[in-house]
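BUG-194 | component: ligand-complex export | severity: low

The export step for zinc ion jobs runs without errors, but we want the raw record kept on the ticket for reference. Input record follows.
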Amino acid sequence: MSKFYFRYGAMGSGKTIDLLKVAYNYKERGQKVVIFTAKIDNRYEVGKVTTRIGIQSDAITFDNDTNFYRYIKSLDKKPDCVLVDEAQFLSRKHVMQLSDVVDMLEIPVICYGLRSDFRLNFFEGAKALMEVADKIEEIKTICECGKKATVNMRLVNGIPTTSGAQILIGGNDSYKAVCRKCYKKLTHHVAGIY
Ligand SMILES: [Zn+2]
Protein backbone atom coordinates (compact mmCIF):
# COMPACT_ATOMS: atom_id res chain seq x y z
CA MET A 1 0.00 0.00 0.00
CA SER A 2 1.32 3.42 -0.92
CA LYS A 3 1.90 5.92 1.83
CA PHE A 4 1.76 9.67 2.30
CA TYR A 5 4.86 11.11 3.98
CA PHE A 6 5.64 14.47 5.53
CA ARG A 7 9.32 14.98 6.24
CA TYR A 8 9.80 18.24 8.09
CA GLY A 9 12.83 20.04 9.41
CA ALA A 10 14.22 23.50 10.05
CA MET A 11 16.14 25.51 7.47
CA GLY A 12 19.36 23.85 6.42
CA SER A 13 18.41 20.41 7.72
CA GLY A 14 19.02 18.84 4.33
CA LYS A 15 15.40 18.29 3.25
CA THR A 16 16.10 19.04 -0.39
CA ILE A 17 19.22 16.86 -0.40
CA ASP A 18 17.05 14.00 0.92
CA LEU A 19 14.45 14.68 -1.79
CA LEU A 20 17.05 14.59 -4.55
CA LYS A 21 18.56 11.41 -3.12
CA VAL A 22 15.15 9.72 -3.22
CA ALA A 23 14.65 10.93 -6.81
CA TYR A 24 18.06 9.58 -7.77
CA ASN A 25 17.33 6.17 -6.25
CA TYR A 26 14.09 5.84 -8.22
CA LYS A 27 15.73 6.93 -11.48
CA GLU A 28 18.62 4.55 -10.95
CA ARG A 29 16.09 1.70 -10.85
CA GLY A 30 14.62 2.92 -14.14
CA GLN A 31 11.55 4.36 -12.41
CA LYS A 32 9.90 7.70 -12.86
CA VAL A 33 9.47 10.51 -10.32
CA VAL A 34 7.62 13.80 -10.57
CA ILE A 35 9.05 16.66 -8.50
CA PHE A 36 7.05 19.74 -7.53
CA THR A 37 8.20 22.94 -5.86
CA ALA A 38 6.42 26.12 -4.86
CA LYS A 39 6.22 28.96 -7.37
CA ILE A 40 6.68 31.28 -4.41
CA ASP A 41 10.23 30.12 -3.86
CA ASN A 42 12.34 32.51 -5.93
CA ARG A 43 15.61 31.90 -4.15
CA TYR A 44 16.84 30.05 -7.19
CA GLU A 45 15.59 29.49 -10.70
CA VAL A 46 11.89 28.93 -11.10
CA GLY A 47 11.11 25.31 -11.85
CA LYS A 48 14.20 23.90 -10.19
CA VAL A 49 14.80 22.27 -6.85
CA THR A 50 18.20 23.46 -5.68
CA THR A 51 20.28 22.67 -2.62
CA ARG A 52 22.76 24.95 -0.91
CA ILE A 53 25.54 22.66 -2.08
CA GLY A 54 24.54 23.21 -5.70
CA ILE A 55 22.86 19.94 -6.66
CA GLN A 56 19.63 20.58 -8.51
CA SER A 57 16.83 19.04 -10.49
CA ASP A 58 14.04 20.28 -12.72
CA ALA A 59 10.70 20.61 -11.00
CA ILE A 60 7.12 21.54 -11.80
CA THR A 61 6.02 24.63 -9.92
CA PHE A 62 2.76 24.67 -8.01
CA ASP A 63 0.58 27.58 -7.04
CA ASN A 64 -2.95 28.02 -5.77
CA ASP A 65 -4.47 26.88 -9.10
CA THR A 66 -2.55 23.60 -9.23
CA ASN A 67 -4.60 20.42 -8.99
CA PHE A 68 -2.07 17.73 -8.09
CA TYR A 69 -4.51 14.83 -8.51
CA ARG A 70 -5.72 15.91 -11.96
CA TYR A 71 -2.17 16.59 -13.12
CA ILE A 72 -0.81 13.18 -12.09
CA LYS A 73 -3.92 11.36 -13.34
CA SER A 74 -3.56 13.02 -16.78
CA LEU A 75 -0.02 11.70 -17.32
CA ASP A 76 0.32 8.89 -19.88
CA LYS A 77 3.15 7.33 -17.94
CA LYS A 78 2.37 7.52 -14.25
CA PRO A 79 5.25 8.23 -11.87
CA ASP A 80 6.39 5.68 -9.30
CA CYS A 81 6.74 8.44 -6.73
CA VAL A 82 5.69 12.07 -6.31
CA LEU A 83 8.02 14.42 -4.43
CA VAL A 84 7.04 17.89 -3.18
CA ASP A 85 9.59 20.45 -2.00
CA GLU A 86 8.66 23.59 -0.02
CA ALA A 87 5.53 21.75 1.12
CA GLN A 88 4.81 24.34 3.81
CA PHE A 89 3.34 26.42 0.99
CA LEU A 90 0.70 23.81 0.09
CA SER A 91 -2.90 24.65 0.88
CA ARG A 92 -5.14 22.20 2.71
CA LYS A 93 -6.86 21.55 -0.64
CA HIS A 94 -3.51 20.62 -2.19
CA VAL A 95 -2.79 18.22 0.67
CA MET A 96 -6.12 16.47 0.11
CA GLN A 97 -5.38 16.19 -3.64
CA LEU A 98 -2.01 14.62 -2.83
CA SER A 99 -3.69 12.18 -0.46
CA ASP A 100 -5.94 11.20 -3.40
CA VAL A 101 -2.81 10.51 -5.48
CA VAL A 102 -1.80 8.06 -2.74
CA ASP A 103 -5.24 6.49 -2.24
CA MET A 104 -6.77 6.46 -5.75
CA LEU A 105 -3.67 6.18 -7.92
CA GLU A 106 -1.61 4.10 -5.47
CA ILE A 107 1.45 6.31 -5.87
CA PRO A 108 3.56 7.22 -2.81
CA VAL A 109 3.87 10.94 -2.12
CA ILE A 110 6.70 12.43 -0.07
CA CYS A 111 6.41 16.08 1.01
CA TYR A 112 9.34 18.06 2.41
CA GLY A 113 8.91 21.32 4.25
CA LEU A 114 9.13 23.50 7.29
CA ARG A 115 6.85 22.93 10.25
CA SER A 116 6.53 26.48 11.53
CA ASP A 117 7.37 30.04 10.57
CA PHE A 118 9.71 32.52 12.31
CA ARG A 119 7.05 33.20 14.95
CA LEU A 120 6.55 29.52 15.72
CA ASN A 121 3.17 29.38 13.97
CA PHE A 122 2.25 26.47 11.71
CA PHE A 123 2.43 26.97 7.98
CA GLU A 124 -0.91 25.96 6.42
CA GLY A 125 0.68 23.14 4.43
CA ALA A 126 2.55 21.77 7.43
CA LYS A 127 -0.57 21.78 9.59
CA ALA A 128 -2.63 19.96 6.97
CA LEU A 129 0.16 17.43 6.40
CA MET A 130 0.46 16.78 10.14
CA GLU A 131 -3.28 16.09 10.15
CA VAL A 132 -3.47 13.92 7.05
CA ALA A 133 -0.13 12.20 6.28
CA ASP A 134 0.53 8.55 7.17
CA LYS A 135 4.11 9.04 8.25
CA ILE A 136 5.56 12.15 9.82
CA GLU A 137 9.34 12.17 10.02
CA GLU A 138 11.65 14.83 11.38
CA ILE A 139 14.89 15.68 9.57
CA LYS A 140 17.08 16.97 12.35
CA THR A 141 19.63 19.73 12.44
CA ILE A 142 21.68 21.27 15.24
CA CYS A 143 21.67 24.76 16.77
CA GLU A 144 24.96 26.54 17.48
CA CYS A 145 24.55 25.64 21.15
CA GLY A 146 24.38 21.93 20.35
CA LYS A 147 20.66 21.44 20.97
CA LYS A 148 18.27 20.39 18.23
CA ALA A 149 17.30 23.35 16.02
CA THR A 150 13.54 23.57 15.62
CA VAL A 151 12.89 27.27 14.93
CA ASN A 152 13.58 29.28 11.79
CA MET A 153 14.66 32.65 13.11
CA ARG A 154 14.22 35.53 10.66
CA LEU A 155 17.12 37.93 10.20
CA VAL A 156 16.68 41.30 8.49
CA ASN A 157 20.04 42.80 7.60
CA GLY A 158 21.52 40.22 9.91
CA ILE A 159 19.40 41.20 12.92
CA PRO A 160 16.92 38.72 14.45
CA THR A 161 13.33 39.91 14.23
CA THR A 162 9.88 38.65 15.12
CA SER A 163 7.93 41.09 12.94
CA GLY A 164 6.68 41.12 9.36
CA ALA A 165 4.54 38.93 7.14
CA GLN A 166 4.80 35.12 7.27
CA ILE A 167 6.25 35.03 3.75
CA LEU A 168 8.54 37.75 2.42
CA ILE A 169 9.42 37.63 -1.25
CA GLY A 170 12.53 39.30 -2.55
CA GLY A 171 13.25 41.02 0.75
CA ASN A 172 16.57 41.37 2.49
CA ASP A 173 15.60 38.73 5.03
CA SER A 174 17.33 35.47 5.70
CA TYR A 175 16.75 32.62 8.12
CA LYS A 176 18.77 30.70 10.64
CA ALA A 177 17.82 27.44 12.29
CA VAL A 178 18.12 27.67 16.07
CA CYS A 179 16.71 25.93 19.15
CA ARG A 180 13.75 27.47 20.94
CA LYS A 181 15.85 28.69 23.85
CA CYS A 182 18.37 30.49 21.62
CA TYR A 183 15.48 31.92 19.60
CA LYS A 184 14.07 33.51 22.76
CA LYS A 185 17.47 34.86 23.76
CA LEU A 186 18.39 36.21 20.32
CA THR A 187 15.04 37.81 19.57
CA HIS A 188 14.74 39.26 23.10
CA HIS A 189 11.54 37.36 23.46
CA VAL A 190 9.61 38.77 26.41
CA ALA A 191 8.27 35.95 28.52
CA GLY A 192 4.94 36.15 30.26
CA ILE A 193 4.73 37.31 33.87
CA TYR A 194 4.63 34.21 36.02
ZN1 LIG B 1 20.42 26.82 20.79
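Assignee comment: Attached the raw record above. The helical segments are 15-28, 68-74, 92-105, 124-132, 180-186.
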